[in-house]
Design brief:
Low-confidence stretches: 151-159
Number of strands: 0
Strand content: under 5%
Distance between the termini: 50 Å
Order of helices and strands: HHHHHHHHHHHHHH
Radius of gyration: 21 Å
Structural class: mainly alpha
Largest sheet: none
Helix content: over 70%
Number of domains: 1
Shape: globular
Number of helices: 14
Mean pLDDT: 81
Length: 306
């Protein structure tokens, strides 16, 4: 167990915590100095329609570069009461499409496309694009009605540039936020790592979609354990001519639908709680899984119509 904890701590120190700390500090510097206003203009039509604040706009844009950084910024703004709980939830879902753009360049194009080939790869990526776009559109519409008429407290900026005073204030705010988020982040990630190492997530992998026939059922089964392995298996079957691109992509989408409970417990829920706390993190994780489930089912049905 000690090796697991040390390995996870090293991973957090190398990959997660530096991004989180830098994101929170930058967010607070931009917020305190007023520079945030220049960034929010990039999404002004969407932000205005969804009744979101400038803080939410900055966090949403940040998701394009890093999901961790975007979540850290959003959690930071919520911790300092710059945005409400409802706005935090809606902004986290508006970010879905922008997070997809990040995954497009770091995972889908370099990993999924080569494994599945051009036809199946483009079809799968298009399905994922559809899901993320629908989640974002749903959140934008929800924000238009749920946040409509809410009076936001004006954000008082000391200047429109970075000064010693704004920098000091931003660092103080960052520390107040980080001392709440970092302990929660470490504890949740360590607990998840230990549970996973001792196989306590294994029973969730035993679920099978028994009525899905032939070779595609193998992709569904493998997808429950590991997503990338499912892509490898699907690509191999496509190469051998055992499946058509539509069948392979349908199986991959079905695998993601069946494994959503695993993803929720193993990844989404711990991550959301780490950033947003138990109550808010639970809300965001469950609603996110529900929206993704609904639109993935819709995407699957659309593909099966061809």
């Amino acid at each position: 167990m000690l090796n697991i904890i040390v390995a996870k701590l090293l991973y957090l120190l190398r990959n997660i915590i530096p991004v989180l700390v830098i994101a929170v500090i930058i967010a607070n510097i931009l917020s305190e100095s007023g520079i945030i206003r220049r960034f929010s203009g990039l999404l002004s039509p969407i932000i205005r329609f969804a009744n979101l604040s400038e803080e939410s706009a900055l966090a949403i844009i940040t998701y394009i570069a890093s999901g961790s950084a975007g979540s850290a910024m959003l959690a930071g703004f919520h911790e300092r009461k710059a945005i409400s709980e409802n706005e935090t939830i809606i902004a986290s879902f508006v970010s879905s499409f922008f997070s997809f753009i990040n995954h497009l360049f770091v995972y889908f194009i370099p990993v999924v496309l080569p494994l599945l080939g051009l036809t199946a790869g483009v079809l799968y990526i298009s399905a994922r694009l559809f899901v993320s776009f629908c989640v974002t559109a749903t959140a934008v519409i929800a924000g238009h009605f749920m946040l409509e008429g809410r009076v936001k407290e004006p954000i008082r900026y000391k200047s429109n540039r970075i000064t010693k005073e704004t920098l000091k204030s931003a660092l103080e705010e960052s520390w107040n936020i980080l001392k709440k988020i970092l302990p929660r982040l470490v504890v949740v990630f360590l607990i998840t790592a230990v549970l996973n190492a001792y196989g306590l997530f294994e029973p969730l992998k035993e679920f099978r979609f028994w009525s899905f026939p032939g070779e595609t059922s193998a992709i569904v089964a493998v997808g429950l354990a590991d997503t990338t392995s499912a892509f490898v298996l699907a690509g191999s079957m496509l190469t051998e001519g055992l499946l058509t691109p539509v069948q392979a992509v349908s199986a991959l989408l079905l695998a993601s639908i069946v494994s959503m409970s695993v993803i929720l417990v193993r990844h989404s829920l711990p991550g959301r709680i780490a950033y947003f706390g138990v109550r808010l993190g639970l809300k965001i994780a469950i609603l996110s899984s529900l929206l993704n489930l609904i639109y993935t089912v819709v995407a699957l049905l659309l593909i099966l119509m061809f």
